[in-house]
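Handout, section B. The chain below has 249 residues.
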Amino acid sequence: MTSNDSQDSLLWQQRVDLAAAFRIAAHWGWHESVGNHFSAAVSADGHQFLLNPRWKHFALIKASDLLLLNSEDPTVLDGPDAPDPSAWCIHGRIHASQPQARVILHLHTPYVTALCGLANPALLPIDQCTARFFDRLAIDLGYSGIADDRAEGDRLARALGKHRCMLMGNHGALVTGASVAEAFEEMYYLERACQTLVLAYSTGQPLNILPNDLALKTASDWDDYQGMAFAHFRDLKKLLDQYNPGYEQ
C-alpha cells in the first residue's frame, strides 16, 4: 500500500466514524431537527475538515455525504452544496485557530441545554462524572443569537481556549477530541454529568459538592481511563450495525 493509499484509507475511516457518530446521536435523541453539526479535521493545520451537509437528518447521514471544506475558502457559502452557515462559522473558525481540536461536536442535548439555561450554568462536582470536567470546562456566557458570522466563530474559539469542552450559555455544548471516539466519549459524559446535576437540582435538597482538591483528583483519575472511549465507540458501532446499518457507504 502506498502512502497515498494509506492516507485515503485513514480519511475514509474518519468519514465512517463521523457518520456513525451522527446516527448514534440520533438514536439517543441528541439531534435537534436537522440542525447541529459534527466535524473532523483532515489536514495538519485544521483548515481542511469534514462537515455534515446542510439540513440532513443525523440518522440518515452516510460517510460519502460528508462535505470536505477549507476554512480559508471564502466561496464556501456561495455554492449549491453550501453547509449550514452556523456550522461553517463555528467549526471553520475553531478548526483554523485550534488545529489540535481534530474533531468538534456541537449539540443541543436536553440536559446540557437545560443547565445552559440557568443563570449559573457551572457544572458543580457532585459525583465522579460531574467531577470529570472540574477545571477542564469552558463556560461561555456571551450568547448573542445564532452564530453565523466569522467574528462570532473567532469569539467562540477564544472562549474555548485551552479546554476540550465548553458549555455555551443559553445555547448548548461544544466538545472536541483527538478522534471521533474521544470526542464522542466527552459528549457522552458531559450530557450524563449535566443530567445528574439537573436531577439533583430538581430534588430541592442541598447539593453535596466535592471539595476542590477531591474534584481535581477525580478529574485527574479519569486520565487513566482514556482507552474506554475507543472500546465504547467500537461497541456502539456494533450495535449501530444492527439497528441502522449503511452509515459506512
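Note. The chain has a mean pLDDT of 95. Compare this with the example in section A.
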